[in-house]
Structures are given as structure tokens and as C-alpha cells.
Amino acid sequence: MVLDFVAPSPQGTSWGLGGTCVNVGCVPKKLMHQAALLGQALTDSRRFGWEFSQQVKHNWGTLTEAVQTHVGSLNWGCRLSLREKAVAYVNAHGEFVEHHKVKATNGKGQKTCYTAAKFVIATGERPRYLGIQGDKEYCITSDDLFSLPYCPGATLVVGASYVALECAGFLAGLGLEVTVMVRSVLLRGFDQEMAERLGSSLERLGVRFLRKFVPVAVLQLEKGSPGRLKVVARSTEGPETVEGVYNTVLLAIGRDSCTKGIGLEKIGVKINEKNGRIPVNDMEQTTVPYVYAVGDVLEGKPQLTPVAMQAGKLLARRLFGGRLEKCDYVNVPTVVFTPLEYGCCGLSEERAAQEYQRENLEVYHTVFWPLEWTVACRDNNACYAKIICNKLDNERVIGFHILGPNAGEITQGFAAAMKCGLTKRLLDDTVGIHPTCAEVFTTLEITKSSGLDIMQKGC
Amino acid sequence: MAMAALRGPAGRFRWRVRAVPGGARGAAGQQCYDLLVIGGGSGGLACAKEGTRWGLGGTCVNVGCIPKKLMHQAALLGGSLHDASHFGWEVAQPVRHDWRKMAEAVQNYVKSLNWGHRVQLQDRKVKYFNFKASFVNKHTVCGVSKGGKEALLSAEHIVIATGGRPRYPTHIEGALEYGITSDDIFWLKESPGRTLVVGASYVALECAGFLTGLGLDTTVMMRSVPLRTFDQQMASLVTNHMASHGTRFLRGCIPLKVERLSDGQLQVTWVDLASDRKDTGTFDTVLWAVGRVPETGSLNLEKAGVRTSPDSQKILVDAQEATSIPHIYAIGDVAEGRPELTPTAIMAGRLLAQRLCGQSSDLMDYDNVPTTVFTPLEYGCVGLSEEEAVARHGEDSVEVYHAYYKPLEFTVPERDASQCYIKMVCLREPPRLVLGLHFLGPNAGEVTQGFALGIKCGASYEQVMRTVGIHPTCAEEVVKLRISKRSGLDPTVTGC
User: Fold this and answer.
1) Which end of chain A is more exposed for a tag (fewer CB within 10 A), N or C?
2) Is the Cβ pair B475, A409 closer than 8 Å?
3) Do B257 and B135 touch, CB atoms closer than 8 A?
């Protein structure tokens, strides 16, 4: 049985089966990212000989309708899938009342109890609010953006997470005026050199950054769809305050686990009180032996759909299929789908230096100019590739980073190669596919330690 | 160490360089070099630049990979224009394509690469002679400039990297006079219009693909199967996709003659081999893509004693890239038994130069070379085709995992994803070594590159499956391949 229930967001948004990824995450995000990329393609296409009216505008309603239609089909697909496998699905909020027993409350308030031998908690997370005046009343989050019934207009994105940057990116790509307010660093936890390069690429797109500020109040100047909001922000370095007026304020400052209010304390499942996440062993088992957890609620694991899926599948196989395989959380690749995409697998340069000492590392890097950008007259210095190698282990590749188009498609195969023990030598011995962006990794020559210039030359 | 690069007999280089003679003078006023490279293409330049650490153009830059991918991109952008409206972009009709504008942009970029190579050769102190070369004896090469001036050069080592040129089917009346080849298509100033592409090579399909994408009426005439040396199931999917997206196919047909009509159009007569029925058609352009022949004809190889294959006329080489004469080498498309790919030529050139300089003893590994066919729906592959795997190991020892998938970007614009397909050919016995990977879908080159590395690392099916996917991408479907052909189960990926 699956108990799934979506509490409406403060703005009233709710959705169907499939969780964050399908409804308010990966899927609608990538479709909107694609919409923004197509806007860029329209511009490029003129240089490749395509001729059409100079007047090109974007219709937000057409996009959200198309996105929601697809999401709806996925909701339906999930339901069919469960039905086909004879899994009961109840649209209700589950809460432990005692050992082996949950109370399920549906949207109408009706309560039913269910018992089971084993339980899996996969309740995920929801966007965090600032806790300041006006945040819940006037601000939206990623929960609301993908089905927003009106164009957001001039938008302030608060946050520096990949959610913040991805949203800022596609909104700018659709032609909207976007400002990003950042408290300290971009993409905390990611390689900071890559994060800064990514930030620069957004700036080149016209995104304005307000660095080292936090909002202290959101006030409504005018009602509407969208309305007009005034945001007062304070500097993190002194008493300076700044005010701005926007049509929409999008909060993307982090997510909180949905582990409160589901009765975990009643049965003794330990959670991390600070962040609400659930610590588990390598079999995804909580402190209560018959209760397991997978996905974003897990302490110390990557919060990614494919990780959750992999963990869930393997858990089921161990519990009921007699299999032993555990989820492999090492070298999980991921991509930030900003207009210029950032794909990575393994360690950031900072983490690598911490774990292996900088003198034991060799970092190879280069900028590159995708062939498709040449005729399109796009920046020849924006795309960047680097690998971090462990000199003490045959120059084993322990970190892979690429900022460029189709970063996800490129990174996937390299992640598989890293799982097989990729070394610099193997990269050098492998023939590149020409002409692609990915082949740049087979001809990396310049190291950071050499200090040499990394401008790309010729064919 | 002084080096020289000589232009091969047929390279179409548009610049003129007067080389300043240098190096030690040998007998009879010859110039002596340590390394003489004949051919300024991918292999030749890589060898020359590597030898003195610096880097012209050849087929790849001028009439191959580069202009091809740019025109492919132009065609893909046409598709993007169509998709854009589904994603909310309001673009007023009509939308049309101007060949001239595209051609000029592509040609300008190619010229900038030519220039870049010249500069690199200069920076690395490689003397460049824009001369037509031929052997006088095994140590001496005669170079003739456009103006007829002759120079004799000798070298301790000589590398032949003259590549190949498209074959004209000269037995077909009118083929030479009225047809063009890939040497010409990228340099046409005017649109080729209604085009007949003859051939079933990747050159034929790639050209037909982008011509169709640019809105031109395009027909492909094939004698038998498409992409002969590739996995045939994948080849069919490639052509099926093209057929359902506007390219016309005349299968099992061969042309008999090409005539020019009074209005300037070309009339082609062909025969259907199965029915023996003749037919005619009218086209603005006929593009021959029926194979390439090595550029060895005018080199006077016999004067040097360099042997060629009687079948292909390519130069016979060993694992060190050496010809039948120890100090004469051949790399790239001109060498027998080598993949005709730019990156392999480049790598072979670099390694050879390093060996000649005594820097290393590494040989080129020609196994598991990945490649991509840039048809409208791209096909990337590395390793063995299913047929090859079965031939080598037997059907019972081979397990093929496969999936039909739908790129997320295809959903909203309702694009046809019927041919988006992946298959991984593995050994059945644990650890189920991956023998080959075949990916048909957008950005196939980008997807395939990393997996090619995995295969070079000796990846097993298990290792690939343990890799977590990146979501949402097309590439992630590779690490989610669970259905085997043997199981008979439906390999269509479902959402959620």
C-alpha cells in the first residue's frame, strides 16, 4: 500500500501522485529549462540562415499548460503502474499511532487505520520559508512556480541553491527580469570555482545578483496577477538596507523534511532534530528495525530522484526478493540545469584537497567552444571542463566537472567510467568522438599547477 | 629538430604560403629534415604539431566533420523552431531558410580554422609548403608549387597523411559532369534545391538528413543496405526515422545515367534491381556519396617502394604505422585497416611523433573507437555491433539489453520518439563484460563519449547498472537497461 498526500502550499498549490520530481521538481523544471533553451535556439537559428519576424514573444500560459498536461499524464501513469502491480494507493496523510499501525487522514478528514509488518518512510521535503513578515502571504516557492496561473513578471529569487539558480535561469531565458538575492556563497557544497563560473554565465544572461543580502520584510504594494511587492533586505556585513520592487518573490532557500507530524516519536524512530532528516544504516533501516526510509528524508545522502529510486528498488528486493545488493551512494553524478548546464561526479576541488591534500592532486582543465556556438557567435570562454586526479593512485579521476551544453548527457557516461576506475591515462588513450563537447575530456593537457593559459586552439 | 609539412596532391587549401627554405642542405641542393609530413589534414597536422609541440585542415575541417556538424545544427535548429511554439514561443509565420546565409557563416568559420592552423604551425616552427608532393626515391620527395616551382626535400622519417577523396562512379554516364560530392556541398553558394543523394554511407545519410531538415526535397538512392559496417538494427532505425521525417528513399536501386535538361535540371535514370524496372526523376542536384578513395595515385609510391592494398589502394601499415619501407609511415584515412575518423588520425599522428622523438613507445589502440553518425536522429556507438558480437562469441554467449525511451523534450512538442532506442551488447557470462553500446537519440555523441571510456575501463553490465542516473536525461536510460532481448519482454520505458 502507498499512502500519499500533498498538503497544499501556503499559496494553495497541490498536486497528484509522483512526488516532488514529477510535479514540482525535475520534470517541470527541465521542461521550463528547455523552453528557455529554445528561446536561445531561436536567436542562434538566425545565424544559421533561418529567417522569421524579429518580433518574438513568449506566452507563459502556453508553457504552463503544456507542462501541467505532461505532469498530469505522469500522475496518471504512476497510478496505472501501481494498479498493474496490485499496490493499493490511498490519497491520505499517514501518521504512526502505535507500533505497526498508522492512521490515514484523507482530504475530507476521514480517518482509517492500517497495519503492516514493515514500513518505508519516503515523505520527502517541502520548501522552507524565511520566517519574516509577508513571506507566507506573498511569496511563492518552487511548489507554486510550475503551475502559476499568471506570468511571474519581474522576479526576485531569494536563495543560491540549485533550485534558485535553475529557476532564475529559465525565467531570464524566457525574457523576464530576474534578480537573485544571495546570503553568502552560490551552490553551497558544490565546487566553488564551478559555482562562480556558473554565476557569471547567469550574469551574462542578464540576471542581477544582490550578494550578501537577506530579506527582512515583504510588503504588498499592489494586488494582482502578478501584483507588486516591495522587499526590504539587510546586508549581512553591516547596517545597510536595500529596497526593491518586484512582481514576484520566489523563495528558494532550502527544503525541510516532512518528518514532523507523522508520529515518528510515538514509535521511537530517531530523527536529526536540527534538520528533521532520518539517519539510517546501509540497509536504509531506521532506529526501529521494521521501519525503513528512502529519498530526500535520509540524513547524509544525496537528495536526488534517481538515488531515491535506486535505494527504493534495492530495498524492496532485499526485503522481498531475497537479494543482498545495497545502494551505492559513491560517485553519484548530478547536474544543475541552468541555461549553461553544470554536470559533476565525484569530489569538488575543495573536498578533494581536504581528503587527499592538495599536493597529491593534479587538476587538468580547459575552456572550450562548442562547435554550434561558433556560427551562433556565442562566447568562446564560457564553457569549462576540469578533472581532479589523485596522483597517489595512478591519477585516478576523483572529480569530474563540466560547464557547458548538454552537461547531463555528457556526465552520465563519465560517471559510469568513474565507477569502473577511470584514470587520466585511460582518458588520454580513448579516442574522442568528433565533433562533440564531451571529447574535450580525451585531450586535456593543461594542469592548474602549470599555470598555463587554457584558451582552446583549432581542430 | 626541423620539420616540414607538405600539402598532399589534392588538398583544397585556399591560402598561399611561401615557405622559407631552411634546415641543413644535403646533396644536390636538397633540404634535409628530420620529419617530413605529406598532408595537412587531421593526421598530418597532429603529427607535425606534436613533433615540435604546436599544430592546417584536410577533410575534417574543410569538407567533413566541421561543416557537416554545422549544417546538421542548422537543420536541428529548424526542428527547435517548430518545438518552440509548443513551449510558448510565439513566432510569426512564415519561417524560411536561406542557404546562402548559412553557407557563408559556415565557410567563414572554416576559413578561420584554416588560418588558426597556419598560425599554429608557424608558432611551432613547422615549415609549411603548399606543394604537390610525390616520391622520387625512398628518401626524397619532390614538391611542386602552384606556379610550377620545384623543390626536393629529404627526411629521416616521412609520414604520409594524404587522406582520401570522394569516389565518382565514372562508369555512370554524366556522373562526373553533372554530379557533385561532399567536397562540393559545403561550399555551394546557392541552395542545392531538390537533391538526389546516391549512397548509403554515413556521408550520404548525414547530408540527406540536414538537407531535409533545411526544407529541401531530398531523396536517397541505395543499392542495398544502409550503413553497411554498422549494427544493422540501428541502421534501420536511423533510416526509418529519416523516412518518417520527410526524406524519400529509393531502396534497391542504382543509377544508370545523368543528363542535363534544357532548363538546367538534371534527369536521372535508374533501375530497380529487384523488378528490373527503369524509372526517371528530375533533380536540381545529384550528390554522389558512394565511398571514398585514398589519395595515393599521384604520390609515385612505387618509386619509394611503399606497398598498397590491391583492393583498396590504401597504404599497408603495421602496428607502428610503418609502411613496407621502415622510415616511411602512413596515418589517417590513407592507411589500410584504420577507422576513417579524425580523432583516430589525430591520436595516431601524435603517438607516432612521440615515438619518433623517443618520448614514448606507446602504440595506437584501434579497438573500441567510439563514433557518431550525425543524422537527424543521431546514432552513437562504441564497441561491437550485435552481429559482430554474435559472430565472435556465439548467440548463446551474448546478452543484449535494450530500451525504447522518450526524451522529455519530445513530450511537449509531441515529437515522434519511435526510433529513440538504446542497446547494450554484453557477454552473458558474469561479470557480463560490455562488448558494445548503441544509442539512437538526441546528442548521441555527448552521451556515447563517457560510456566509451567505461568500456575502455573494462566495464561490466553490473558496474553500469550500479551507476546512478542523472535525471532527467536521455543518457540515464543507459544505466537503467534491464530488459534483455532474450526475455521477450516489452522494452519500452514507462514514466514515473
Assistant:
1) N
2) yes
3) no
The number of C-beta contacts closer than 8 angstroms across A and B is 313
Is B448 in Cβ contact with A48 (below 8 Å)? no
For residue B336, count other CB atoms closer than 10 A to its CB: 17
Q: How far apart, in whole angstroms, are the C-alpha atoms of residue B202 and residue B373?
A: 6
pLDDT of residue B17: 27
For position B26, what pLDDT does the model report? 38
Q: Could you write out the three-class secondary structure of chain A?
A: CEECCCCCCCCCCCCCCCHHHHHHCHHHHHHHHHHHHHHHHHHHHHHCCEECCCCEEECHHHHHHHHHHHHHHHHHHHHHHHHHCCCCEECEEEEEEECCEEEEEECCCCEEEEECCCEEECCCEEECCCCCECHHHHCECHHHHCCCCCCCCCEEEECCCHHHHHHHHHHHHCCCCEEEEECCCCCCCCCHHHHHHHHHHHHHCCCEEEECEEEEEEEEEECCCCCEEEEEEEECCCCCEEEEEECEEEECCCEEECCCCCCHHHHCCCCCCCCCCECCCCCCECCCCCEEECHHHECCCCCCHHHHHHHHHHHHHHHHCCCCCCCCCCCCCEEECCCCEEEEEECCHHHHHHHHCHHHEEEEEEEECCHHHHHCCCCCCCEEEEEEEEHHHCCEEEEEEEEECCHHHHHHHHHHHHHCCCEHHHHHHCCCCCCCCHHHHHHCCCECCCCCCCCCCCC
CA count, 13 A, side-chain hemisphere, A226: 23
Over residues B253-307, the pLDDT tens digits come to 999 999 999 999 999 999 999 999 999 999 999 999 999 999 898 899 999 999 9
Rounded to a whole number of angstroms, the distance from the CA of A126 to the nearest CA of chain B is 19
- What integer pLDDT is reported at residue B30 of this predicted model? 60
CB contact under 8 A, A38 and B109: no
Q: Is B241 noted as a catalytic residue in this protein?
A: no
Nearest Cα residue in chain A from B70: A372
Distance (Å, whole) CA B226 – CA B211: 18
Instruction: Let me know: does B447 contact A412? Beta carbons within 8 Å.
Output: yes
Alpha helices in B357-413 (DSSP H): 386-393, 408-411
Taking CB atoms and an 8 Å cutoff, what residues of chain B touch A406? 443, 446
Task: Specify the range with the lowest mean pLDDT, choosing from A155-164, B61-70, B140-149, B182-191.
Answer: B140-149
Task: Tell which of A26, A317, A344, A431 to mutate to test the B interface (max B CBs under 10 Å).
Answer: A431
pTM over 0.90: yes
Count of other CB atoms within 10 angstroms of residue A195: 22
How many C-beta neighbours within 10 Å does residue A358 have? 12
Tens of pLDDT, residues A288-306? 999 999 999 999 999 999 9
Q: Do B81 and A458 touch (CB under 8 A)?
A: no
**Per-residue model confidence as pLDDT tens digits over B92-138:** 888 999 999 999 999 999 988 888 888 888 888 888 888 889 999 99
**Short-list A400, A377, A389, A456, CA closest to A425:** A389
Q: Does A321 touch chain B (CB under 8 A)?
A: no
ipTM of the complex: 0.94
